[in-house]
Design a protein that fits this description.
Blueprint: H1 2-20, H2 24-36, H3 40-52, H4 58-70, H5 74-87, H6 92-102, H7 116-125, H8 130-153, H9 157-190, E1 193-196, E2 200-204, E3 213-218, E4 222-229, E5 232-236, E6 242-246, E7 250-252
Antiparallel strand pairs: 1-4, 1-7, 2-3, 4-5, 5-6
Helix pairs in contact: 2-3, 3-4, 4-5, 5-6, 8-9
Length: about 250
C-alpha cells in the first residue's frame, strides 16, 4: 500500500517538475527563436532568466544587447554591449553594434584631450582581458628566470651580456604587465562606469533633491562614477563636466 502511494506521488510530481525546470540551453534556444520571430520582449525575458541563474556568457549578454536595441531600449542595449566588451574586449561585432547604438544618443560629448602616452595606456588597458595579461606576465617572469639562470650559470661573456639584456627588457615588460593587470582587474571589480537609463536626467550641483540643476543628460550616455552619498552618485562625463544624479537613473556596467 505504501509503495503504491509513493509511486502515485512520484507520478504526480515528476511531470510538474519537468514543466517547471528549464535548462539554460532551452531558455537560450527559446530566446533566439523569439528574437528571430521579432518577439523581442520574450527574447529579453528568456535571456534575463539565464543571466539571473548566473550564466552571464558572451552569447547571453550580447544577445540581450541586440534584443534591447531591437525593442527600442537604447540605454539597456548600450549597457549590455558595454558589459560584453568589458569581458570580451575588441570583439568586432560588439564594437560595431555599440557604435550604431551610440549614434542614436542625444548627447554629443567630446572627450578631454589626453597626453599621447595616457591615451596609449588606456587603449592598451581596455584591449585585453585580465587573464590574458596575467598569462603574459607569467611568461615574462619565466623568461627573466631563464635569462638569470644563463647569466649565473655560464661564464661566456657573450651569453652573460645577452642574458642581462633579456633580463632588462623582459623585467620591464613584467613590471608593466603586473601594473596593467592590477588596473584591469580594478576595472572589473569597481564597476566605476555606468549608463544612463531614463530618456532625460537632470544633473544636480549637490547630492540633494533641492539642489541647483546644472545640466541635462540623456538615455544611453556612458558616465564615470566618482563617489556616492546618500541616494546620489557623483558622476563625470568624458568632457570633464560633473555633478550628482539619483542612484536609480544609472546602471553600472
Amino acid at each position: 500500500m505504501i509503495r503504491r502511494l509513493i509511486l502515485i506521488v512520484f507520478a504526480v510530481l515528476l511531470p510538474a517538475s519537468a514543466l517547471i525546470a528549464e535548462t539554460p540551453a532551452e531558455s537560450f534556444g527559446k530566446g533566439i527563436a523569439a528574437y528571430k520571430a521579432g518577439d523581442y520582449p520574450e527574447a529579453i525575458r528568456q535571456f534575463l532568466a539565464i543571466e539571473q541563474e548566473g550564466y552571464d556568457s558572451f552569447a547571453v549578454t550580447y544577445n540581450l544587447g541586440n534584443s534591447y536595441y531591437k525593442n527600442g531600449n537604447l540605454g539597456k542595449a548600450i549597457l549590455y554591449y558595454e558589459r560584453t566588451l568589458l569581458h570580451h574586449p575588441g570583439n568586432e561585432d560588439v564594437v560595431q553594434n555599440l557604435n550604431i547604438a551610440r549614434a542614436r544618443i542625444r548627447d554629443r560629448v567630446d572627450p578631454m584631450p589626453l597626453l599621447f602616452f595616457v591615451r596609449w595606456w588606456n587603449d592598451l588597458q581596455s584591449s585585453f582581458r585580465p587573464e590574458s595579461i596575467f598569462y603574459a606576465s607569467f611568461l615574462f617572469l619565466c623568461i627573466v628566470a631563464a635569462a638569470l639562470f644563463v647569466f649565473f650559470g655560464f661564464q661566456r661573456l657573450f651569453l652573460r651580456r645577452a642574458a642581462l639584456s633579456v633580463v632588462a627588457v623582459f623585467g620591464v615588460l613584467f613590471v608593466l604587465s603586473v601594473v596593467l593587470y592590477t588596473a584591469r582587474l580594478d576595472d572589473y571589480r569597481s564597476h566605476r562606469f555606468a549608463v544612463v537609463m531614463p530618456s532625460k536626467v537632470t544633473v544636480l550641483s549637490t547630492p540633494d533633491a533641492s539642489a541647483v540643476e546644472s545640466f541635462n543628460i540623456h538615455e544611453g550616455l556612458k558616465v564615470e562614477i566618482l563617489d556616492s552619498e546618500k541616494e546620489f552618485y557623483h558622476i563625470r562625463l568624458l568632457d570633464g563636466k560633473n555633478g550628482w544624479v539619483h542612484r536609480d537613473v544609472i546602471e553600472r556596467i
